Amino acid sequence: MSPEPRLVEVRKNVLKQNDMVARALRARFRAAGVFVVSLVSSPGSGKTAFLEKTLTLLRPHYRVAALVGDLATENDAARLACSQAPVKQIITGTLCHLEAAMVQNAVDEEEWDLSQLDFLFIENVGNLVCPSAYDLGEDLRVVLLSVTEGEDKPLKYPTIFNSADVAIVTKSDLAEAVQFDSEATRRNIQAVRPGMLVFQLSAKNGQGIGEYLGFLAARLAESRAAAAV
Amino acid sequence: MHELSIAMSIVEMAQAEALQRGVQIRAVHVKLGALSGVVKQALLSSYEMACDDTLLRGSRLVIEDVPVVIFCPKCKVPRPLSSVQLFCCGECGTPTSEIVQGRELEVVALETQ
Q: Which of A32, A109, A144, A194 lies at 20 to 30 Å from A175 by C-alpha?
C-alpha cells in the first residue's frame, strides 16, 4: 500500500530570481541617478526608429545610452549607433524576451559608469506577450503601437498594456493613409489600463515627439528630486 | 512562448525542495493569475518536458487559476473583474487600474509521499 500523499506548503514566486536581480538593478540605477526606460511592442511597430530619434534629440542635452534586445543580428545596435550614443546589443538567441540578468550582464560588460548617464533605454525583443512578466529594473515601461497595427491591439494584448506605464502610438505620419481611428485606440487603451498616459507621434517627421521628450525630462527631474529627499 | 523556461524554473524549485526534504514529489501545485502572462495549456505541456531527466519525472502540475480582482476607488472595496478587456468596477462602472490579485505565478504546495 502506498502511503497517503501529503501536501507541503511552500509559497514561492516562480520569477523570484528575476525579481531579485531587477530589484538590485533598480536600486543601482537609482543610486547612480539614471532614469531607465524600457520599450516593448510587437515586431515592426517602429521601436528602433523611435529610439534612434529619441537618442538623437536627447543627446545634445542629456547623457544617454541604450541596450537593445533581439533574437539575432546586431543590426539594431548599428542603426542606433548613428545617434552617437553608446549602444549595446543583447542577443537573446531563442529567448523571446529580456530578463533582468541580461540587462545586468550587458551593463557590467560595457563597464558603463551609470552615474555619468541621465537616461538608459532598454529596447526589448519585439513581442507583446512574454516580456510582460519580467521586471528589468526600469523606472518606466513604454508600450508602442503603430497606426498600421489596428486599433484593437490593446484589447488583444491586455496583459502587456496593463504592465506598462505609458503608451505611444507611432508612425502617426501614416495615420491618414491607413484610416487610423485615434479615438478608438485611446478608448481601447483606457479600457485595459485606465488613466494611462498616451502620446501619438511620428519618429519620421518628429511630430509629437517634443511632448514625449518633455515628459521624460520631467520624470528624470522628479526621480532625482525624490532620491535627494 | 516563454512557458518552457517558466516550467523549468518550477521544476528546479520543486527539485531543490525534494532534495532538501528528502521526499519524492507526486505533484506541484501552482497559482496562475489571469494577468501573469503565462498560458495554462502551454505551461502544462512544457511541464512534462521540463520534468524529463529530473527527480520530478512522472509528477503532475496542478494549476489553480487566479481571477483578476481590482480595487474600486469609489466603492472602496475589492471587486472581481469580469473582463480583462475592461478594467472597471462591475457594480458602479468606475474605471480602475488598481489590481489586487491576478498577477500570481507561484508555487504554493508540493504533494509528497
A: A194
